[in-house]
Design goal:
This protein is mainly beta. The chain contains two helices and 13 strands; from the N terminus they run E-H-E-E-E-E-E-E-E-H-E-E-E-E-E. The radius of gyration is 20 Å and the shape is flat.
Length: 202
């Protein structure tokens, strides 16, 4: 499949209320049996938008079996801003609400002014945002995910409001044994702020 408008796909699936636009290209292969299906697919969406946020290109690869969904490659770009991720999810057959998930996510330096939600709420807010995160968690039906590992580093640099400098912010999360330690440092609004905390993983 190539050069297929997503709105046609959504219409066929009776999901026209889903706020996703763009042009779809899809290449896939299905084999195995009805009891043990296997599928692989590569998907590209160009000149798209999701929930009001435009993007220039989305590329992903998906591998599926009856008890696993793996996304070894996910790349989302909007101009120079990029998000890259990979996800591995294993689960009981016919049950996507329970299972074990591992993920890794990184961004490059993203201009806050290019994020549609920020432009709508704070149109004069600017700066650079960068995130790196990875984790391991158990999904549980009707309960919050139970993390066994979580590491993240979120940075906001050169933040300005109405072209007035506000400062920088860094938030980190690091797994240490059976706890996640959080650390916050900020000099936003010319106020030096530091904070620490921890959350038990079990």
């Amino acid at each position: 499949i190539s050069n297929l408008p997503i709105d046609r796909v959504l219409a066929l699936a009776a999901q026209t209320d889903l706020p996703v636009k763009g042009t779809l290209a899809l290449n896939g292969q299905v084999n195995g049996t009805l009891a043990a299906p296997q599928a692989t697919a590569t998907l590209t969406i160009t000149n798209g938008a999701a929930y009001g946020q435009p993007f220039t290109n989305l590329q992903t690869e998906i591998n599926y079996t009856a008890q696993a969904i793996n996304v070894p490659h996910f790349h989302l770009a909007n101009g120079a801003a990029t998000i890259d991720a990979d996800v591995a999810f294993t689960h009981p057959a016919d049950d996507l609400q329970d299972g074990d998930v591992m993920f890794h996510l990184t961004t490059n330096q993203i201009q806050l002014a290019t994020i549609d939600a920020i432009k709508q709420s704070q149109p004069t807010l600017a700066g650079i945002l960068q995130l790196k995160a990875d984790g391991v968690a158990k999904l549980r039906k009707n309960a919050a995910p139970l993390f066994s590992s979580l590491n993240a580093n979120l940075r906001a640099n050169g933040v300005t409001l109405n072209k007035n400098p506000l400062g920088d912010l860094t938030l980190t999360a690091d797994t240490r044994g059976n706890a996640v330690a959080f650390n916050l440092t900020s000099d936003l609004a010319k106020s030096k702020i530091t904070g620490t905390g921890s959350v038990q993983l079990d």
